[in-house]
Each structure stands twice: as C-alpha cells, then as structure tokens.
Design a protein that fits this description.
With 413 residues, the chain is an alpha+beta fold. It has helices at residues 43-69, 93-102, 131-138, 168-175, 199-202, 210-215, 232-252, 266-274, 347-350, and strands at residues 2-4, 7-11, 27-31, 34-36, 160-166, 186-192, 261-262, 336-342, 365-369, 386-389, 397-398, 402-404. Mean pLDDT is 88; it is low at 86-91.
Length: 413
C-alpha cells in the first residue's frame, strides 16, 4: 500500500461535462491521510480469501463430526481434526466466531474448544483417511448429478463468509436521543464470496467470451490480473476478512492490531487518482490519452469496436502502464472500482467539505470510479462519476482497499 498524504483538492468536473450529467459541480474538499493499495485487488489475492473460507468450513465440520463420534487424535483418521482440549468454561472469541460462522449450525455447544490446525487437509480422494472424512468432504462438492466429465467441483454457494460490524454513524446519531444499546447497532452479514464468473457471458449479448468464464478467476495465468465479478457486498466482506487475517497474524507475533481495511470514499478515490495534479483530466494530467511516444496511457476502448488498439482485449495485469505521482497503477481504465460512497446526483451539494462521504446505507446505488477496459475515454477522467447496484457483479468492476493513517505526518518534512 502507498501512503496518500492529506490535502485539499477541487473535486468534480472543472473541465467540460461532456456527458451533460450535471452531477459533479466543483467543490474544494479536504481529505485526511490514508493508505491505499497501489493496484486493484488481484485474482490471487481474492483466491486466498476463497481458500481460507473453504478450509475454515471443512475444518469446523470435521471437528464437530469427530466429537459427535467420540473419535480423538489417538485413533487417527478424522480424529486428527478433532477439537483440541480447551477450558470450556472460558470461551475463546476466535473459536466461537469460527463455529458460529462456518459450521452452519449456529450455537453448537462447542464454543470455547479450539480447532486443530496441526494436520493439513487432504483433498486427493485416494488419500482420504476414513469414511467419516469422506462424508464431510463430499458434502462441500456438487452432487454427481450436477457434475460432468468426471470432474469434482466445489459447490461455491456453500462458500459463505459471515461477519459483524458496528454502524457507528447510526449509533452516534441515535445516542443524542438516549436509551440506546450498543447491540442495537451491530449488523451481521452473510455473503456468498465466490466471484460470479458468468458475468463474462451475461454482460455481452451475442459475444463469445467462454474462455474468460472458464479460466479467468482460477487459472495461474491470470493470477496478477484484477479480480472481477465481485459485488459491492463481496468487496466489503473481503475488507473485513483482510483485517481479520492481518490481525490474526499480528496476534500470533505479539504485535498490535492494525485498523480496518475498507473501501475508499468517493473523495479519497478521486484525490488518490489525481496524484497531486490539481487540474488534471486524467491521472497522468492530460488532456490526452496517448503519450508523446504514441502509446496509450491506459487500458480502455479507444475506438468504436476496437478494444485491442491499446494492446489489450480485456483486462491487463494490475501493475501495468505507468503509475501516477502517488504511485497508483490503473486509476484510469482496466477495471472500474467500487467505492464506499452511495450515489446521489446531488451529493456534491450537501456532503461535508472535510472527508466528504455520501454513505447512505439505504441507497443501494454505489459509486464506481475510473472506467474500465470496455469504456470510452470519458469514463477514465478522474472526475467522472458512475454507479452500479450493490448486489450487482460485472466483468469490468473490481476494487482496491484503503486504511486510515494513524497519527499525523511531520509537516516540516
């Protein structure tokens, strides 16, 4: 991640509004310092999330069945994955979290007992240790009737991530009325986290994109390409998991917890995209999309029907083209990016001039920024606003995460 220093900028369309949308009048705003991913989240990074959820589900199911059967580590087989001995009178927050969220059984009675991670999971069917292990593993795959060509495929609808968060803004506004309880503002989300790979087919009628549907997310050839087919809710779930994953590692090393990863606000995104260039049309300044050497500066659709004129038909690797002056790659083109802000055409008229954010939870239209590989140059402009519905996934929308900067930079440096 790169540190984006605090500062003020003119948010909105200081140049001609070619789209005649009239939804981005200029406004001087100030944002605090924050860290931001220098690239979009890649397939390999998101696959780590998917694998973690899958392993968590399997280990929890194995431990519960071993306990029900009374099989322990000394008996081998599924017993190798049995709960570790623990003080059941003092519940572990982590293990209660795992059991609540991944057993699919709600309150189980096993809260407070630690999961065993000493044994690696076995995925090769010929190496399954016993019939009980086979029973659990079969439960996460598609049935034989839904499979073809002898392939065993994970039932991705079972890969759900459940997490809780506190609606601090609602709590702060309600506190002035009194008689409020903290629990009233704790929200619980459960999200299917596997990317929707069918977007490559559904987004384009009468177009052959089956290879991208089949290979784009899972194949190593695309590991460093931006993940797509991710809804706003899935992007939020990834941010929560990334925070948990980092803090679990810090806890094991005796280090202090980090603050949360999250999606950027619309203002943060535009400020980072500008790269310190106050009146720039694009992240590199502009107003042109071709460099002085005749090369395109981003991955987009330069001409009608000619997607490959910029040397890329679909997406490109996340660290492609030249970064802007904040060292941010592909803030224009490649994939559009989710922000945390809700879309309102008149938002610029009422949002604060300090850390502005139109974060209306009831508004399901979420701002996307930056334009994509299938967009014309207008959508690549740093001030152009667009939106998509929070539950939608597209072949041209990805995301990157941010973290708040702790403390203040030395202004004398």
């Amino acid at each position: 991640m790169e540190l984006i220093p605090r500062g003020s900028f003119i948010m909105g369309k200081s140049e001609e509004d070619q789209g005649k949308l009239l939804n981005a009048p200029t406004k001087t705003v100030t944002v605090r310092s924050f860290y931001m991913d220098d690239t979009e989240i890649t397939n390999s990074e998101y696959r780590q999330f998917v694998e973690w959820v899958k392993d968590s589900i399997v280990r929890t199911k194995l431990a519960i069945l071993a306990d029900e059967l009374g099989i322990g580590p000394e008996e081998g087989g599924i017993g190798d994955y049995a709960f570790k001995d623990a003080d059941t009178t003092r519940a572990s927050i982590y293990d209660k979290y795992m059991l609540d969220n991944y057993s699919g059984m709600g309150e189980t009675g096993y809260e407070g007992r630690a999961l065993s991670k000493d044994e690696d999971l076995v995925w090769n069917t010929s190496d399954y240790p016993d019939e009980y292990y086979t029973e659990i593993m079969d439960s996460i795959y598609l049935s034989e009737e839904e499979s073809y060509n002898g392939q065993r495929t994970i039932d991705v609808k079972k890969l759900k991530y459940k997490y809780s968060w506190m609606d601090i803004e609602a709590a702060a506004r309600a506190s002035v009325k009194g008689n409020t309880s903290r629990k009233d503002f704790i929200r619980t989300e459960e999200v299917e986290i596997y990317p929707d790979t069918t977007v490559w087919i559904r987004d384009f009628s009468y177009s052959y994109n089956e290879p991208m549907h089949n290979d784009y997310f899972w194949h190593d050839a695309y590991s460093e390409y931006p993940v797509v087919g991710i809804s706003w809710q899935q992007a939020k779930a990834f941010c929560n998991w990334r925070t948990k994953f980092k803090n679990d590692d810090n806890k094991s090393r005796g280090r202090q917890f980090v603050n949360q990863f999250r999606l950027p606000t619309e203002a943060e995104w535009e400020y980072a995209a500008r790269g310190g260039i106050e009146g720039g049309t694009y992240p590199w300044g502009g107003p042109y999309v071709i460099s002085d050497t005749g090369c395109f500066m981003a991955n987009f659709k330069p001409q009608r029907g000619d997607y490959a004129a910029d040397a890329a038909l679909y997406t490109v690797e996340a660290k492609s083209y030249e970064p802007n002056d904040f060292n941010m790659y592909n803030m224009a083109g490649n994939v559009s990016e989710w922000t945390n802000s809700s879309y309102d055409p008149s938002a610029y008229d009422y949002v604060s001039t300090m850390n502005p954010n139109g974060g209306d939870q009831s508004n399901t239209r979420k701002v996307i920024r930056g334009g994509s590989w299938k967009d014309v140059a207008y959508f690549l402009q740093v001030s152009t606003r667009d939106y998509e519905y929070a539950d939608s996934a597209r072949s041209y929308i990805g995301f990157r995460t941010v973290q708040d900067y702790m403390g203040e930079e030395d202004s004398t440096q």
